[in-house]
Amino acid sequence: MTERTYKGYLLDLDGTVYRGGEVIPEAVTFIGTLKKRNIPYLYVTNNSSLTPEQLAGKLRKMGLDASPEDFFTSSMAVAETIEKMERQEETGGPVTVLAIGERGLKTALEGAGYSIVEKAPASYVVVGIDREFSYEKMKQATLAIYGGARFLSTNCDRAIPTEEGLVPGNGSLTASIAYATRTEPLYVGKPEETIIKLALERLGLRADEVLLIGDNLETDIAAGESSGVDTLLVYSGFSQESDVEKAAVKPTYTARSLADWNV
């Protein structure tokens, strides 16, 4: 099944390329075809905790050929968003970031040249998933925002699936700070258009030249719609055919798996 040809692809990970700790076999074949035909692609993920190197290692362990350059994370999107803000405002002064998050977030910010601080004041407060989130971290973020810091968050996921069940996602952590400060953050991850537009810049392609593939109507497909990118919903993960019928956001195409899509 192929309605038209695309010059590049944006791919979700969990539920599209792998499920839990196992690769989805059809994804291996699909990625192999993209590589063979030299069709550019990026894995676009809301995962802010892991670095591209860690994500590449994870896929290689599953049997997929992957390199760090194949990934664009919400942490990388936050770092690039701050860079764009700084260019627009031309402040010229030192930029400090109070980062609540794990290795992936801090590595992306440091790689962009920003100084990370643990206490207010700061130029920016950035929140990513942090499994050691505490009252002290929330307090320092609150003080920094009341002191004038810009407030950004990697993504608004309310809850995330784990082996134990659904647990608080980054959106829940961010919401506590938003409530304390009466300040809404700028979210950059899916379903926002920000991460998709930045990924398109990396590919060097226009929105109408790319297909976004994912398994979640609320994040992947909504992100494609908000950024003007065609979407393919695969029924290999979160959203199923019955969900599409009642969804406000509709994918451009649907498929049982990546095996049904001809590049």
Keywords:
single chain, about 260 residues, alpha/beta, Rossmann fold, 6-stranded parallel beta sheet, 5-stranded parallel beta sheet, 9 helices
Brief account:
The chain is 38% helix and 21% strand. It is of the alpha/beta class and 263 residues long.
Describe the structure.
By secondary structure, the chain is of the alpha/beta class. The protein folds into two domains: 8-46 and 190-260, Rossmann fold; 75-187, HAD superfamily/HAD-like (Rossmann fold, 3-Layer(aba) Sandwich). It contains nine helices and 15 strands. The chain has helices at 25-36, 52-61, 74-89, 103-111, 135-146, 170-181, 193-203, 217-227, 241-246; strands at residues 8-11, 18-19, 22-23, 41-45, 71-73, 96-100, 115-117, 124-127, 150-153, 159-162, 165-168, 186-187, 210-214, 230-234, 253-255. It has a six-stranded parallel β-sheet with strand order 5-4-1-13-14-15, sandwiched between helices. The protein has a five-stranded parallel β-sheet with strand order 7-6-8-9-12, sandwiched between helices. A two-stranded antiparallel ribbon has the order 2-3. Helix 3 runs parallel beside helix 4 (103-111), helix 3 (74-89) packs across helix 7 and helix 7 packs across helix 8 (217-227). The chain is globular, with a radius of gyration of 18 Å. The model has no long low-confidence stretch (mean pLDDT 94).
